[in-house]
Design brief:
The complex is a heterodimer of chains A (247) and B (91). Chain A is of the alpha/beta class and 247 residues long. Chain A contains eleven helices and five strands. With 91 residues, chain B is α+β, with helices and mostly antiparallel strands. Helices cover 37% and strands 14% of the residues of chain B. Chain B is elongated and about 65 Å long. The chains are: A alpha/beta (247), B alpha+beta (91). Chains A and B meet through α5, α6 and α7 of A and α1 and β4 of B.
Chain lengths: 247, 91
């Protein structure tokens, strides 16, 4: 039964019979506390997701219940609303940020259960470029796949990538560019890592609308992510490769 | 042994949930690629522009602190209107 009025309203966006049954049944068996988490996630209210997740864990609710009955149910409705053009990429990214706020509290429990992050990734849009939506979608996907991701934002200089490398010790650095004029800054960042002697310590990936495999090869990147999903697959390969190279 | 079994069972349950979440993200990502072919990805559901850079399609109403309205048509290529190297905040 839907105890949360706001969530019931959000559920009305789910119109396909099979989804109504599946998501509806899944929500109906959950407690009000879990419905509050789902609703906060749909609203992109990261402060509430953060607070509610923390409180529920303290009250003895399992990580699994929060994942399944709170976060997953909320994200299912976000997915449906996005597919049906009720919301768009900016709203999805706000919900993904809220999801992360909850996941922060679940990560130590996942780790204690033997689920470790797949690897650590630094992501940034290269110097001179203020485009961030492709990067943010990639970050959402990488986090969803189980990577730890540090977002360096936009207009990231080679030195800033280097500093963040020193701070976080990532397996992968992901660079994004949208402009043909800023694309060469990916190559400059790769060269910078060569110059400071860190090139062999990390795998360097590139992506962005104007970037091609050919261009990535020319710049000396280790991998090119054609899409956010492809970036996840390539990142998994690169982490495995780095482990092999270091062992 | 029982404790090991319970940890392993719990791990499997958590992994299953994480896989389901990733599947939702994957669908979202595919849909984002499709929708972005005609609709600017920075345009939100209220038709406001959420980009941090200047774009010719941004229309500021009275209050410049509010996010500008996107006046771009989804029928035209929106990318040509972007000035992604000029921050909107410094305008």
């Amino acid at each position: 039964m839907f105890e949360h009025e706001g969530l019931l309203k959000e559920f009305q966006w789910v119109t396909k019979e099979s989804e109504k049954k599946h998501i509806g049944e899944s929500i109906a068996k959950t407690s009000l506390a879990m419905q509050e988490i789902s609703f906060a996630l749909i609203q992109g209210d990261n402060e509430s997701v953060d607070k509610l997740t923390k409180e529920n864990l303290e009250n003895g609710i399992s990580a699994n219940e929060i994942l399944d009955n709170g976060l997953l149910n909320g994200m299912s409705i976000v997915g449906v609303k996005f597919r049906d053009n009720i919301i768009f990429v900016p709203e999805v990214l706000i919900s993904a940020r809220a999801m992360k706020a909850g996941m922060v509290h679940l990560e130590p429990i996942l780790s204690a259960s033997g689920i470790e992050p797949l690897g650590t990734v630094l992501m940034g849009t290269v110097k001179g470029d203020l485009h961030d939506i492709g990067k943010n979608l990639c970050i959402m996907m990488l986090r969803g796949a189980g990577f730890t991701v540090h977002d360096l934002g936009v207009d990231t200089s080679p030195e800033a990538f280097e500093d963040a490398f020193g701070e976080h010790g990532p397996d992968i650095i992901g660079m994004s560019a949208l402009l043909t004029t800023t694309m060469p800054n990916m190559g400059r960042t790769i060269q910078h890592f060569e110059d400071v002697g860190l090139r062999e310590e990390v795998r360097l990936m590139v992506g962005g609308a104007p970037v091609t495999q050919e261009f990535a090869d020319e710049m000396g990147a280790d991998a090119y992510g054609e899409s956010a999903v492809d970036a996840v697959d390539k990142a998994k390969e690169q982490v495995a490769l780095l482990k092999d190279l270091k062992s | 042994m029982t404790n090991d079994n319970s940890i392993s069972k719990n791990k499997k349950k958590l992994e299953k949930s994480l896989t389901l979440i990733y599947e939702i993200f994957k669908d979202i990502s595919f849909n984002a690629d499709e929708i972005s072919k005609y609709r600017c990805p920075y345009k939100n559901a209220k038709n406001q522009c959420t980009a941090n850079f200047q774009c010719r399609n941004q229309y500021f109403q009275n209050d410049k602190l509010e996010e500008p309205i996107c006046v771009g048509s989804d029928k035209l290529n929106y990318r040509s209107a972007w000035h992604v190297d000029q921050p909107i905040k410094n305008d």
